[in-house]
Structures are given as structure tokens and as C-alpha cells.
Amino acid sequence: MKNLWITIFLISCSENDNSFSLETIDHDGTARKYILHIPEKYDNDIAIPLMLNFHGGGGTASGHVYTSDMRSLADEENFILVYPQGLYNVWNISLSSDNSSKNTTDDFGFINAMLNKIISEYSVDTTRIYATGFSNGAGMAHALACVMNDKIAAIVSMGGLLYKHTSENTIPSPKGIMTIHGTLDEDRPYDGIENYYLSINEIHEFWININKTNTTPLVSDFESEGQAVGYYSYNNGTNNTSIEHYKVYGAGHYWLEFIHNGVNTNQLIWNFVSKYDLNGLIN
After folding, report:
1. Do the Cβ atoms of 183 and 256 come closer than 8 Å?
2. Residue ranges per domain, the chain?
3. Contact by Cβ (8 Å): 229, 248
4. Three-state SS sequence of 81-132
5. For 141-197, how does the pLDDT look when each residue is reduced to its tens digit (9 = 90+)?
6. Mean pLDDT, residues 220-244
7. pLDDT the model gives residue 14
8. Which residue of 47, 107, 184, 234 has the smallest Cβ count within 10 Å?
């Protein structure tokens, strides 16, 4: 299966894209993999941001590249783009103290080791490391914001939820949080899964308490190619952090594409996270 995944990756990638590579790191005695894209403007003398983009459960890094292809965006905005590969195609978003979890893979350790390796090889602005993802991968982004809050400056989740045990057993620092979610998502329901995943509203309440933002959001509605979307913004948090939410009415469990004020989903994600570093909103 390992060789099959590598073959699929190599076939699906352009032969002349020299900045796009499959990388391997040994962690816990296992070869862990990630796809790395170095932007065209990269200059080793200039430290630039890094974006992690996590595939969903049952997916692959290579498949997620084409579901959520941020390569041209990374080239334009000049950030390093990383698509990590989950062991057995899933992410362990639970803490080691969670006795109810059967997954013992140390994915937090893997991501930390991977970041350290990339930082040692490239010029990375370590105050501007971001995470996004879909489904289980969005849950991973949420978990990293809680567990590795000294490294992750901002996150965006797409069709994913914060694991309840993780929220109850970590004390993260304030940071930029954006959620994008369909109201008819059946895999990660908007209203959460009792005793396992927080609802979208509970996620916002959790981060409102951490960020100390306004408790009442600014709300506006818009349409994108006939798709109704609600936009919510909780502002004035610690270090000018905010929480933003796109509520996509009638949408299910997939990577959601829409346009807001002339800006597409991937650009919206980048525009949000790139406003922040580990100290909050960048002046």
C-alpha cells in the first residue's frame, strides 16, 4: 500500500513542478510522509509563513491537494505549503490522556517533528505557522490550535469539529479562528455529536472564552452562485484576535467553494490566517 500511494502521488503530480515533492521523516519507528510545495518566490534569506493543510479521514495528502489546491496561492502569496499524510489515512486528534480513544498514533509528535525538520531546511517565519483542513483534518487543525498553541498562530476548519475531550483538557492561547461549515453536514453535524464533538456554536463559545472577543457577532448574509451563506464575526479579542464563521446553508460534507466580496474560499482562508502571528493581529 505504501508503494501504491507513492505511485499515485508521482503520477498525479506534474513532472516539471520541481517545487512539489514527497518527503519522509521517521517518527516513532514509522516512516511518515508529507507533500511539500515551496513557492516560486522563495528566497532563503527571507523567512516566510507556512501553511499546513490536512486531508479528511480516509483521504490522502495527494488527493487533498486536488480537493484544496493552494499551490498557485502559495506561489502568489509566498508561503510554504505542506500536505501531511495521516497514518492509515486518519488523524489522531485525541490526547494521550483520553482513555476512550483507541487510536494511539502520536500525530502531534509527528507534526512537531515534521515542522522542526522543515524549519531546519528552509527559512520559515516560526511566528506565522497556520493550519487548515477538512473533516478529520479540520479536527486536527482545531486540536493543534489547542495542543501546539505555542507554534500555531491561526487556523481555519472546513467541515470539521473540535473534539470534546481535547477542549476540556487544554488551555490554549488566544489566536485567530475561522470555521466554515455546511448546515446539512451529516458526517460532522453542525450541532455536533454528543460526548464526542462540540457543535459549531459550542466551538465558538470555547474560543470566545479563550480570545475574550465580543459575545455577539456581527452578522451578514450573501449569496454565491445561488448558494446562501451567513457570515459571522466575533471581534475585539485579546491581541485583536477574532473568530469568523461562514455558515453555508443546505451544504453537506465536502470542501465548500463560494465567493465572498469577489474572493474565493482558498483566498479567504489565507486572507484570514495571514493577518495573525503568535502575538495576535499583525500591526
Report:
1. no
2. 2-9+19-281
3. yes
4. EEEECCHHHCCCCCCCCCCCCCCCCCHHHHHHHHHHHHHHHCCEEEEEEEEE
5. 999 999 999 999 999 999 999 999 999 999 999 999 999 999 999 999 999 999 999
6. 98
7. 42
8. 184
pLDDT of amino acid 20: 78
Task: Answer yes or no: is pLDDT of 140 > 50.
Answer: yes
How confident is the prediction for the chain on average, in pLDDT?
94
| DSSP-assigned states of every residue in the chain | -HHHHHHHHHHHS-TT-TTEEEEEEEETTEEEEEEEE--TT--TTS-EEEEEEEPPTT--HHHHHHHS--HHHHHHHT-EEEEE--GGG----S-TT-TT------HHHHHHHHHHHHHHHS-EEEEEEEEEEETHHHHHHHHHHHHSTTTEEEEEEES---BHHHHHS--PPP-EEEEEEETT-SSS-TT-BTTTB--HHHHHHHHHHHHT--SS-EEEEEEETTEEEEEEEE---GGG--EEEEEETT--SS----EETTEEHHHHHHHHHTTEETTEE--
Question: Taking each helix axis from N to C terminus, what angle separates 107-121 and 136-147, rounded to the nearest 10 degrees?
Answer: 80
Cell of 112: 512537531
State residue 19's pLDDT score: 56
CATH fold of 2-9+19-281? Rossmann fold (3.40.50)
Are the beta carbons of 214 and 243 closer than 8 angstroms?
no
What are the phi and psi torsion angles at 14 (to 5°)?
Answer: -65, 135
Buried b / exposed e over 171-185, threshold 16 CB at 10 Å, is: ebbbbbbbbbbbbeb
| Grid cell for residue 194 | 454528543
Query: Alpha-carbon distance 69 to 37, whole Å?
Result: 11
Residue 17 has pLDDT above 70, yes or no: no
- What's phi and psi for 21, nearest 5 deg? -140, 155
Confidence band (pLDDT; 50, 70, 90) for 59? very high
